[in-house]
Specification:
The chain has 274 residues and is an alpha/beta fold. The longest helix is centred in the first third of the chain and has 30 residues.
Length: 274
């Protein structure tokens, strides 16, 4: 090829005396091969150009139809208000797996199910605290509990009383009598009697021997202890049961109601259960 280029230079310089090697059959064959090689390179260059140009649009914006036909180009930009285009990296994010112990099967991670909401019945408004007329013979400051109507009365002056709704002893656990408040506790702990533990275990419900005070404690926010008995006037973590015969003999109140009563009475107050 170098000789061909030299010969071409000689011709340009006007040296026509040099032998014309282009007429040689070998030279003609070489010209043909050279032209074929140049043609193949041109085809390759032509085929590569669209590919390189296409890379500029590898992440083409999605085709969108604008509700506002006066400005469709704004939506095509992918930056209009309210339009979020996922990046290629986010779209190609690999699936995550939970790492397990060696030899165990790995499974795809799943989102925890939403916590199920349990709808509880609302308390009847008649069992909410209210001032009522009272015609009993008890003197002011006495607590009277009507286990048939499920009401607790705090007797006041001038023939009035403050009435609360309560839960009372279920069938087989009813009782009546008069006692004094011997103790008062804030967020009391709970030690179920041995008889209760045994009774509930026979039903498949196993009670703890001790439970510290708190929201999970069935005695609720306050407790008023009655004499030397195991009965109490106390709060509850099941306020929807107020107004029914539901307890093992204790007098059950809503937490906010027993807190109100707790502030109004003292140790030594008479409690009459009828």
């Amino acid at each position: 090829m170098f000789r061909l280029l030299v010969r071409a230079k000689d011709r340009e310089a006007g040296d026509l005396s040099a032998p014309d090697e282009f007429d040689d059959p070998r030279c003609v064959s070489m010209k043909t091969a050279l032209l074929s090689l140049l043609g193949a390179m041109a085809v390759l260059a032509t085929g590569a150009t669209p590919s390189l140009g296409g890379d500029r649009y590898a992440d083409r914006p999605p085709v969108m139809v604008s509700p506002d036909l006066s400005a469709p180009w704004l939506l095509q930009l992918g930056h209009a208000p309210g339009i979020v285009r996922p990046s290629r990296q986010a779209a190609q994010q690999p699936q995550r797996y939970i790492q397990t112990q060696p030899g165990q099967q790995r499974t795809a991670a799943v989102q925890a199910p939403a916590r199920r909401m349990v709808m509880r019945p609302q308390i009847n408004p008649v069992y909410l605290p209210q001032e009522v007329a009272y015609g009993g013979h008890q003197k002011p400051g006495t607590i009277v509990i009507d286990t048939k109507q499920n009401f607790l009365f705090l007797v006041e002056k001038d023939g009035k009383a403050r009435r609360y709704g309560v839960g009372t002893g279920k069938p087989g656990f009813e009782w009546a009598g008069t006692h004094k408040i011997t103790n008062k506790r804030v967020w009391p702990d709970w030690r179920p009697p041995a008889a209760m533990i045994k009774r509930e275990a026979a039903k498949g419900r196993y009670l703890p021997t001790y439970l510290a005070g708190g929201m999970e404690n069935p005695l609720g926010a306050r407790a008023l202890y009655l004499g030397s008995t195991e009965y109490r006037i106390h709060g509850t973590n099941q306020p929807w049961t107020i107004g029914g015969a539901v307890s093992s003999g204790c007098i059950r109140m809503r937490n906010e109601d027993v807190v109100d009563l707790y502030e109004r009475v003292n140790i030594g107050t008479t409690v009459e259960v009828i």
